[in-house]
Write a structure and sequence with these properties.
39% strand, alpha+beta, homodimer, Pnp Oxidase, Chain A
Chain lengths: 135, 135
């Protein structure tokens, strides 16, 4: 598998797994829906501002911006296993054109979000390194 | 969803996602095959001793035993989404009856491992907390 193919597979997956680090140093992991926008992984939460600050992944990225995002494929035929991992830095966007664009990308990708688009904030992850493997 | 059902779904998934923390404080994430043995998540790698010590997840658990393991289900119908997360402490077992049992559990669960069982070491995760969510 080449990098371009790995990034394509990552982008086409409807779900990814986001690992971040808590202020106390323990890891945290959560599934996320996302859109890949160039070299940025776009996710949007739907919370009131006060609750958003307390959302674990938002809190984590505020204290430790480094995150790791995984897309993987399981198959009973292990020759067909593969995974693609993006290591990067997260940042929280509470308002402005970057949030508007993030909401637009997510609602364009997921019809499930269209009836009531997420309010934000956006958690944008600037990818610094791709790693991938195929069986 | 109740805890017993959450743990059952976790145990039945053929693959989980393991988040650990690197010595430099950044998160790391990798898919793993596993078996749930009571309150312990059992995984086994297949490496020569020297290479095993340098394997990222092994190195990470040696410096920071806290890990987080996720199983999740994606569905286009978001009412059917669910995830189950186990937070716990990892420990590396290089030899002895715990390694033997781990190899036995993994080869019993995965026919793919039977032709050439993994040598070890085992990464055993003692679960301290279950968290789960269903749409």
């Amino acid at each position: 598998m080449e990098l371009s193919e790995a990034v394509r597979r990552f982008a086409e997956s409807p779900v990814a797994h986001l690992a971040s680090v808590r202020a106390d140093g323990a890891p945290h992991i959560v599934p996320v829906v996302f859109a890949l926008d160039g070299a940025t992984i776009v996710t949007v939460v739907d919370e009131k501002p006060k609750r958003a600050r307390n959302l674990r992944r938002i809190e984590n990225v505020a204290s430790e911006p480094r995150v790791s995002v995984l897309v993987d494929h399981y198959d009973e035929d292990w020759r067909r296993l593969w995974w693609v991992r993006a290591d990067g830095r997260g940042r929280i966007v509470h308002e402005g054109p970057e949030l508007d664009r993030a909401i637009e990308l997510i609602t364009a990708r997921y019809p499930q979000e269209r009836a009531r688009p997420p309010r934000g904030p956006a958690l944008l992850i600037d990818v610094e390194r791709w790693r991938f493997w195929a069986g």
